Amino acid sequence: MKKLVQTFKNIWSIEELRNKIVVTLLFVLIYRFGTHIVLPGIDPNLIEAAQKSAKSNGILGLFDTFAGGAFSQASILALGIMPYISASIFMQLMTILVPQLQKVQKEGDSGRKKINQWTRYLTVVVTMFQAGAYVSYLNSPGYAEALIPAFKPYFFASTILLLSAGTLFVMWLGEKIQDKGLGNGTSIIIMVGILARLPQSIAQEFSSKVGANDAFIRGILVFAFEAVFLVLIIIALIALVQGVRKIPVNYAKQIVGNRQVGGARQFLPLKVNSAGVMPIIFAQAIMFLPTLFSFTNLDSAKGIVRIFNDHSNGWYMLIYSIMVIGFTFLYTALIFNPKQMSEDLKRNNGFIPGVKPGQPTADYIGAIMDRITLPGAVFLALVGILPGFAQMLGVTQGFSTFFGGTSLLIMVGVVLDTLQQIETHLLMRQYDGLMTGGRVQGRQALQTASY
Q1: Whole-model pTM?
Q2: pLDDT tens string 107-124
Q3: What is the total count of domains within the chain?
Q4: Cα dist from 257 to 253, 254, 264, 357, whole Å
Q5: Do 223 and 173 lie in a common domain?
């Protein structure tokens, strides 16, 4: 305990780190305040039943989780940061697939600014499209009764305008957190939205277990078992995020002046899950397409739409797992370049013991990457379908989302990334790190182009 208190004192004693933490918390509070501002033309006292319906719905509940409850509350920030994420993912894929965009990206800082500006323009288009769909959803039973009749002629135009402005404002908050705060701004905003639902979900799960059982003690034990199992899942997920395969690399000895440099053995770390959360997001986006056709009336949906909206359905989990595994290999192949790594090693007089430089080294690295990607992809698919298994075992839908899937993976990744930055600040000032045994390893950050 004394060590923990001293660590917090060290963190607070670094002025730059202290200012970053304060700025980040300030922007997060502004975002959370905005999620409670209801759209003009809607009576907030009449949407309680519709809120419960949205939270319990599969795909809409996922949107509401990412938006921190703003989606079900019909807030001006209902769409949150997700349109920006969608535009960023699209632009990231285009920079990989389109040679002209690759050239722009390689122009350095000016190229990155161009890509970011185009992403913002695309965000406006995506936001307006999603805002139109959201207005249709607000005209469905539940929210329609809450619309103020006198405001109906202006509701469509004003809602699209406010939702677009709200998304751009959240995007601006994320960029400010990135520049002046701590951690990746976009990731922080989504994590805060997810964590905002955690206390309510825990309370609902506790009340359901205690109230559903005649024996109070039995309900307590079931809830305690679920909490322990959730902790074990988080530990396993941390191992997945931080897991690396180290390839030994030797560097040839060189004489520079009167000194001998090189000759030391180092390691080339290959991440078990180099694709991060992207495969799960891609799979969920594809699975959402059939649901989009009955976006305003999911209760009457049938066939494949009903299957894709039920996360505990066996066919949903099977198709979802196959897509996650496939997207993991696809995205890893897009971002991982063993040939470039081989050239970098050769340029720096490095070599892998027992492997010839050049193409044999690239083939060796690629083969190892393929072998470690398969178990990583399978485990990632298992993480993605764990909420469905949790629902089948009686866990409430809200609490089940924290047993795996995108929500848990994002939270673990963002927390590790933020802790790594704090660790870096402490070590730069010659303080002890956050932990005495080992160091916090970062992960592939959920940047604007990697959400």
Answers
A1: 0.76
A2: 777 888 888 889 889 999
A3: 2
A4: 13, 10, 18, 27
A5: no
